[in-house]
Prior knowledge:
Layout lengths: L2 E4 L4 E4 L4 H30 L1 H8 L9 H29 L1 H10 L2 H10 L7 H10 L1 H17 L2 H29 L18 H4 L1 H15 L10 H7 L3 H31 L12 H20 L1 H22 L6 H35 L5 H20 L1 H16 L3 H23 L8
Antiparallel strand pairs: 1-2
Helix pairs in contact: 1-7, 1-8, 1-10, 2-3, 2-8, 2-12, 3-4, 3-6, 3-7, 3-12, 3-16, 3-17, 4-7, 4-10, 5-6, 7-8, 8-13, 11-16, 12-15, 12-16, 12-17, 12-18, 13-14, 13-15, 14-15, 14-18, 15-16, 17-18
Amino acid sequence: MSTVYKTLAHPLPWNPEDPDFWTGHGRAVALRNLGLVTPALALSFAVWMLWSVLVVHLPAAGFRYTTNQLFWLSALPALCGATLRIVYGFAVSWVGGRRWTALSTASLLLPAGGIALAVQDPATPYEWMVVLALLCGLGGANFASGMAHISACFPAREQGRALGLGAGFAHLGVGLVQWAVPVVIGLDLFGLPAQGDGLWLANAGLVWLPLIVLGSLAAWFGMDDLPSAGVGMAEQAQLFAHRHSWLMSWLYLGSFGSFIGFAAAGPLLLRSQFPELGAAQQLVWLGPLLGALARPLGGWLADGMGGARVSLACFGGLALGVAGLLAGLGNEGGAPLFAASFVLIFIAAGLANGSTFRMVPLGFLREARQGRGSVPEAQAQGAAALGLCSAVGAFGGFFIPKSFGSAISLSGGPAAALYCFLAFYLSCMAICWWFYGRRDAPLFC
């Protein structure tokens, strides 16, 4: 039975799996919704990662925070966003994709506006900065609801491509914020008092306000509340007893968690370890940009070569990148190697995002085809697992910058954290090969 949904003009049955409906009407509706939710997700990622670049400039503006405190501010948005993703994944089926996208995008006005006010006064209490950092996590949570809405828009045969495009463009928001903020805070755009030596830190929040309003209005007046079967609490609860869901969550923590975690920590880490780079540090946005562009390529390679094979190579690249970071630390002239290793980490993480995300639902389907469950049940479990993996992976945005902050506070340098990351990537390689990549793997994919 088809479900009625309300378009801008009139109610129609929504059934994207029907080829005639899809060709005659559904595709246009789905593409319009995809075109409107994608920029909203990019804005969400930009606000989510706002502190990653803002913390670099707080000391020059007179804020007397320790390096560990600055890393806390860059880590807390991911902690909040990862936790809220679990709830946001259900929100579309409860509220509707149009209404939830509009309202969740509008919620970004709180952290962006609050930051614009708080950074104008170096006497702002650190506790208030912590609250604003947590509020930025709303942007990270929006990804879960955005992916759920895209899934509702497209038939199963086209969801992979649509989700890849939505996720890839959403990740571009990380590079956007790390490029835009250093530019706008050096300009007197709104006639506000400067902080420090010609810094207008309030601009880091103010420039996003009109874009957020436009994105929210576009969603409200241009999108649709399409029916979404969603994933019930029963399917979600079953995941906690399923080995595959936790193994894939571990691998996605290594892929997406690395992308978002090193993006959150990168600017401050480069500034603290290689201050001699000077203006060259402004190019830090190139890493997240390349990682975002690599994600669709990772999914495409996985389709032809197998997800486990691609992911295994990517985790090897991540381990090699961390080894390069260690080699560049503490060496005169080590900055180029350190920067190049960062780029390698982002490219490898971006590729692994696409390949690992493909492996999640495929594993459940392989189990069903081995006689351990039905295909419809496996599809529902795969959809639920994507939400769980997305939430777990986002915690990497907290663990990585916080590990760097703790290591620097305790030992004076980030090497201890890097050795832990190296061991983690080796464990990802072992899991990927043993459970998914070898010839006799339980779920070869």
